[in-house]
Design goal:
- The chain is mostly helical.
- The chain is built from twelve helices and six strands.
- It has one domain (3-376): Alpha/alpha barrel (Glycosyltransferase), CATH 1.50.10.
- It is 51% helix and 6% strand.
- The longest helix is centred in the N-terminal third of the chain and has 22 residues, at 3-24.
- The radius of gyration is 19 Å and the shape is globular.
Length: 377
Amino acid sequence: MTQRSVEAELDLFDRRIRSSAAQLGERWPHTADPATGVWTTTEDGDWTGGYWSGMLAIAQATGREVVPPGLRARLTGKLRRRAADDTVSRGFLFYYGAALGAILLADQTAAEVACEGARALAGTFNPRARVIPVGARSEEEHSMGPQHVTIDGLVGTLPLLTWAAGASGEPELREVAKQDALGHIAFCLREDGSVSQSAEFDPRSGELLRRYTHKGLHANSTWARAQAWAILAFAVGARCFPEEREILRAACRAAAWWIARASGDDIVAWDFDAPAGSFRDSSASAIAAAGLLKLAPLAPPDEAARLREAGQRTVETLVSRYLTPVGPDDARGPGMLIEGCYNPHVGRATRHELIWGSYYLYEAVNVLTGRLAADRL
């Protein structure tokens, strides 16, 4: 990536952030129509709102003042009411939506909000299963509950609790995060390095009852976002818990499985078992790229270069093919990461901009340019 191309990419992001802020006010973006750029929004942030606040924090931390002063802080304050919600998705909200403001900008109010969310999450930890379960108010509550886990949730809970342990002086939060990471490895990582999105366990004994992929093509398939979430979560876990070599091995296994099966010149299909011609998912590739860039500095020397190259190649593919405008005659608004696939089972946002995909690509571009260190996020 040349300096000139990087500046052009960041300019596209700046323009998209500005236009989104003008459209959104103090609501949170969720998915955006690829033809118009108009966001579907949420009042309470759903599980995705923290990613918008996280993008604003990165922009502010890197000197790119692209939205009205105080917007990020006001959004962070609104998250407080979500602390009591019984859902593992609080990890996404309170890490990206609050803790990043504390980490990158020394925002004390954001630190307080993030610690409130972390304490509430830790209170749902099941010590027999060694996991934080999905919870009773998850977006998956129609099919899941306190006896289920999903690899998605670990992406937020692990860095949130680990950071909050130091920020609050409560080391027990760090121990919960570590056990949660180990529990998810036992429940979700298959022998070959692929990932089963979810698992059901006996809440009394903690015994694993079954593994399954509830958002993938079928119960035993490998949903692309599950594999990407695992790379990212285990990479963060390897950084936070260097004494637990099992977590680093899990991250490397999940990454190796991804690299061996992801196309070298395009983004992945929404499920690795999906037939040719199926929807692609730019958000899964963006998540994986962010995870690979975090994992590379931690991996053994013979793997580090391969991981970083794979992460950089994925970023270059995303920005050259899927970040609008993708051609000289593209009439769409700039800076949209298109071709994200939310949920093809119900036809929901199958070729759209997804706020989490945009966040992870924005993060990865800033890491590759040296504006942010991967180990700060």
